[in-house]
Design goal:
The complex is a heterodimer of chains A (about 350) and B (about 270). Chain A has about 350 residues and is mostly helical. Chain A is about 70% helix and about 0% strand. Chain A has a single domain, classed as ABC transporter involved in vitamin B12 uptake, BtuC (Orthogonal Bundle). Chain A is globular and about 55 Å long. Chain B has two domains: about 180 residues, Rossmann fold, CATH 3.40.50; about 70 residues, no CATH class. In chain B, the strands form two sheets. Chain B has a six-stranded mixed sheet with strand order 6-7-8-3-9-10, with helices on both faces. A four-stranded antiparallel sheet of chain B has the order 2-1-4-5. The chains are: A mainly alpha (about 350), B alpha/beta (about 270). Chains A and B meet through α2, α9, α10, α11 and α12 of A and α3, α4, α5 and α6 of B. Chain A: Keywords: Cell membrane, Membrane, Transmembrane, Transmembrane helix.
Chain lengths: ~350, ~270
């Protein structure tokens, strides 16, 4: 399975007396992976400069890229790290999105507060879904989560909830302006971009810490050999349900951010196609490799547009072609390909 | 209720007391009233032809199976009420018949997972990397490094387990089991798949575990030479019953044991 030196070994970083990671650089690879650190710094500088170079539409696209990256990161914690499948993460994304919409537009609460609420709510929903899912393995779990994805848009349309959800019409959200007088410098798009970037970095830091911790090792142990994990004292049920909760939390926060950025939620934005898109992003980026989320998100944001530019009528076919091409050329996702290249250049 | 009292009262309480353990699978009696003790600091060999019930008994001890009848006491306390994941924390470590490594993880991380039950953390503190978590990780790392040195795994410590030779993987499993800080170590056919030299190494290792770490060992094994050379006492099963118990010399002379093995798989 795809694993990186940066996110997975912990062996390299943990044992090397892990020099306390400075907060701001937290997402950089630890210990001896200087290449990873260099790439991280360059990416971060690029990300900071981007909103001042490009137009609003590109900024919007890049913001959505980060939103999807967070959603994929969440799925990666479940599938890549803990070995549980989900074809239903669009449902958690939807719960997060509606949490933001309802809190902001119906209750008049500031958008910043919607993130922790969506996170906690989705953790609870994910954990509760994870409990019965304990009995399901592999493709059966995939089917159960598929059912979740298919059912969610229907629930959002139900008449009894219409007062809150807006029914089929959905809810329009007003885009927040930059706070603290920053609105003189940054327009709303730029501000949301930086806000998403900050949230994304923080969540990445959490995910990376988690993977390298006792909890993360327990999750990976369950993925690799559940019976042996249990014999080592890992309470597999609790950890698997918790993994579902944490995963749903990440994806829910992504949905929350996505709703604010798009300024609109409606049931048909959260169909099964969204769940599949998140899964595609995970596989393209590299299952089990956390930074892969960015590459996977880039694929699901940009490749449909590229396909459409090639041919309006055959956009779907070209998208499929790109997908197959990537899987064929990089069976372990972009992460696996990059690491193979680095290994080749390094030797 | 009176278990702790009993434990305190009798210094000679066996580490493990297997009491009248019976396991039935449908109509088949896999274990029939098995009784024996394992004493502190002892290496007990458990042998028997194929289908004798060794693995079934082993799985009872590690709580993967629950006996239909009888009891298993660890230091005087029944373990049958505990879930499987609590067993390591009680002080019973184990290895698996055909290595059950966490194959994508490095050797070091495999051993770190072994330290799971002997350490504490929660997902929130772990995600935030709180100071007490970092201290806990340093403690785990120190313990793990000690085991890596002890079992001479330094060269492969940061490689994924999946690519390592079988014999090395078995040592990793041993290190992982030792990281649970066991008082009793259960070894499930550790010699399986090893060549002659490796079996000899294994014998030394088992003695080291007992002599240097003071761990009591239950060795379930096919390999007669190994069992006879390292065990203090041997228990022999056949068709789910105990047919002999004694020193290796006594057991080897026992006519019932000889009969059980004649024409058997050895």
């Amino acid at each position: 399975m795809a694993m990186s030196d940066e996110t997975m070994t912990g062996g390299a970083s943990g044992s090397a007396k892990a020099a306390p990671v400075p907060k701001g650089r937290a997402a950089a690879a630890g210990g001896k992976s200087t290449l990873g650190q260099a790439v991280f710094v360059i990416l971060l500088l690029g990300a900071l400069a981007l909103p001042f170079i490009f137009k609003n539409f590109t900024i919007f696209q890049m913001t959505m890229l980060m939103v999807y990256a967070i959603a994929i990161l969440g799925l990666n914690l479940l599938t890549g790290i803990n070995g549980q499948f989900s074809l239903g993460h669009g449902a958690f994304y939807a719960v997060g999105a509606y949490t933001a919409a309802i809190m902001m537009e119906n209750l008049g609460i500031g958008y910043v507060w919607t993130l922790p609420v969506a996170g906690i709510l989705c953790f609870v929903v994910g954990f509760l879904f994870g409990l019965p899912a304990l009995r399901l393995e592999g493709i059966y779990l995939a089917l159960a989560t598929f059912a979740l994805a298919v059912a969610t848009p229907q629930f959002l349309k139900l008449t009894p909830f219409e007062h809150w959800t807006g029914g089929v019409q959905g809810i329009v959200i007003i885009k927040p302006d930059a706070p603290f007088g920053l609105d003189a410098v940054l327009n709303a798009d730029q501000w949301l971009y930086f806000f998403t970037l900050a949230v994304g970095l923080f969540l990445y830091w959490l995910a990376r810490n988690l993977v390298r911790s006792r909890t993360g090792r327990a999750l990976m142990a369950i993925r690799d050999n559940p019976i042996a994990a249990r014999s080592m004292g890992v309470n597999t049920s609790v950890y698997k349900a918790t993994a579902f909760g944490i995963s749903a939390m990440f994806t829910g926060i992504a949905g929350c951010l996505g709703a604010i950025v798009i300024q609109f939620v409606a049931p048909d934005s959260f169909t099964f196609a969204l769940s599949v898109a998140i899964l595609v992003g995970l596989v393209i980026g590299g299952v089990g490799w956390l930074p892969g989320a960015l590459l996977g998100a880039a694929f699901i944001v940009f490749i449909p547009n590229v396909a459409e530019e090639i041919s309006k009528g055959l956009a779907g076919a070209f998208y499929g072609f790109f997908l197959i091409a990537v899987i064929y050329l990089a069976p372990q996702g972009a992460g696996g390909l990059l690491r193979a290249l680095v290994a080749k250049l390094g030797r | 209720m009176n278990a702790p009292m009993r434990q305190a009262a009798t210094a000679g309480t066996p580490v493990i007391a297997v009491e009248n353990v019976t396991v039935r699978f449908g109509g088949i009696v896999a274990l029939d009233g098995i009784e024996f003790d394992i004493h502190e600091g002892e290496i007990l060999g458990l042998i028997g032809p194929n289908g004798a019930g060794k693995t079934t008994l082993f799985n009872c001890l590690s709580r993967l199976y629950t006996p239909n009848d009888g009891d298993i006491r660890f230091n005087g306390t029944s373990i049958l009420g505990e879930p499987a994941h609590r067993i390591a924390g009680m002080g019973i470590g184990r290895t698996f018949q055909n290595v059950a490594s966490f194959s994508n993880l490095s050797v070091r991380d495999n051993i770190r997972v072994g330290a799971h039950s002997a350490s504490r953390s929660d997902p929130v503190s772990d995600a935030l990397r709180l100071p007490w978590v970092r201290k806990g990780e340093r403690d785990i790392d120190a313990r793990v490094q000690e085991l890596i040195d002890w079992l001479e795994l330094n060269e492969v410590a940061d490689l994924p387990v999946s690519g390592l030779p079988f014999g090395t993987q078995k040592r990793v499993e041993m290190a992982r089991a030792m990281a649970t800080e066991p008082k009793l170590l259960l070894l499930d056919e550790p010699a399986g798949g090893l060549n002659h030299d490796e079996v000899e190494e294994l014998g030394k290792l088992i003695k080291m575990v007992r002599d240097e770490k003071g761990v009591t060992v239950l060795l379930v094994e096919h390999h007669m030479a190994l069992v006879m050379s390292v065990s203090d006492r041997v228990v022999v099963l056949n068709f789910g019953r105990k047919i002999a118990e004694g020193t290796p010399e006594e057991v080897q002379k026992n006519p019932e044991v000889i009969a059980a093995y004649l024409g058997g798989d050895e």
